[in-house]
Amino acid sequence: MNTHLILPQPESFHKKLKQVFASLTDTEIQSLVTPESIRFYKKGEHIYEEGSRMKGCYFIYCGIVKIYQTGYEGKEQIIKFDKEGDIFGFRSVIRHEPACSSIEAISDTVLCYIPDTVLHYLLKSNSGFAYDMVQIACKELGDSNRYIRDIAQKSVRERLAEILLLLAVDFGMEDDGTLKLCITREDLSNFVGTATETVIRLLSDYKTEGLLYSKGRKIKLLNIEKLKTIAGL
Question: Is the overall model pTM greater than 0.90, yes or no?
Fold first, then answer.
């Protein structure tokens, strides 16, 4: 973690936290955001590793992180990407369990660290905050159930189409249809759950079919409706 950079002022964090957790009072938000809680991670830096003892969770002020588990022979299985306004690590903190996944910043990222004592206090004392956290946990559970279903029932070609559309929804597209999230072929394959060579071949097939254009890490979606059909959406 780099501690020698000029980081955002706490007031900026207050505003973003209020947008996500409207039930928090100004005093509660001030208890969350202190100069010590604001942390910067450079692109490629790990925030914590699977199995780590969790003493707090993280709110993303800006940037993107990759959440993954390490499987057979060290291969990554990406669970999801989190962005500005998301909170991660809270389930392990609430359950007093080791981290169930590893977190890596895939862009320069600024986080707000929320100690376990503060998180538990807010959950017990602020019913509105507790409800918001339940909603977040339920969404994550729904996403996980969908992912398990897709792994079991959909082909790699179908899953790749669905994930490209998911990235478009979650992170947005430029006016020309280019995904705003620039992702490596390896990360894309680890998200889909297949070999990198398979993703490269399928992207080439999609390109030939006029569904997308790709160059380097940039992917431009050309026929969203056809991709939805392939994905079974």
Answer: no
Distance CA 102, CA 88 (A): 11
Q: How many CB atoms lie within 10 A of CB 111?
A: 26
The set of long-range contacts for 208-217, using a CB threshold of 8 Å and a minimum separation of 24, is: 212/164, 216/182, 217/182, 217/183, 217/184
Question: In the structure encoding, which two tokens stand for residue 88, read together?
Answer: 């991660």
Distance CA 55, CA 191 (A): 28
DSSP calls for 124-187: HH-HHHHHHHHHHHHHHHHHHHHHHHHHHHS-HHHHHHHHHHHHHHHH-B-TTSBBSS---HHH
Please name the residue that has the structure tokens 């998180």: 119
Given a contact cutoff of 8 angstroms between Cβ atoms, the answer to whether 28 and 126 are in contact is: yes
Least confident span in 5-9, 31-35, 117-121, 180-184: 5-9
Q: Which run of H or of E encompasses 226?
A: helix 224-231
- Nearest-CA neighbor of 103 among 41, 182, 184? 41
